[in-house]
Amino acid sequence: MHLRILIVLITALLFIGCKEEKSRTVKVEKIEPAKDKVATSTYEDLEGNPIELTDYKGKRVLVNYWATWCRPCIEEMPDMEKAQTLLLNDNYVFLFASDQSVEKINKFKESRGFKLNFIKFNGVYAEENISALPATFIYNKMGEQVLRFDGGLKWDSPEMIEKLRAVQ
Questions:
Q1: For residue 29, pLDDT beyond 50
Q2: Structure pTM?
Q3: What is the full DSSP assignment across 31-89?
Q4: What backbone phi and psi angles, to 5 degrees, belong to 72?
């Protein structure tokens, strides 16, 4: 009997509590726009100039998404430099996109000395279907993504160079 009374009381309190919650008004606050620079393009060079992949139509483009804290990203950069040199006459553009600040990218570039075309990515990795770094996308001369590689790779191997040269 006492158990039934207890259950009825708890149920009544829950309903009273729920009604109170529903009757509360929510205060809506006006959100002021951010005063920071809003990105107008997906990418920008390290001087802040907008870049889009369509700027490279007619060329084959390799976009490597990376971060300064990503060990596999950094470990594959020397091979990427070699691959970039090997493909110099093959109408390729290599872009190294990070969503970190331009200041961080510049500091990394200066401290590491890589001769790579680092750019700032203003998008969201999830929208590009990227869940881990490094991720590398290859685009053909028409601007269509034709290959994707996830994880660190040996970019200057004869097999990889052959695969990249075969992109039409």
A1: no
A2: 0.76
A3: PPPP-SPPP-SSEE-TTS-EE-GGGGTTSEEEEEE--TT-HHHHHHHHHHHHHHHHTTT
A4: -60, -30
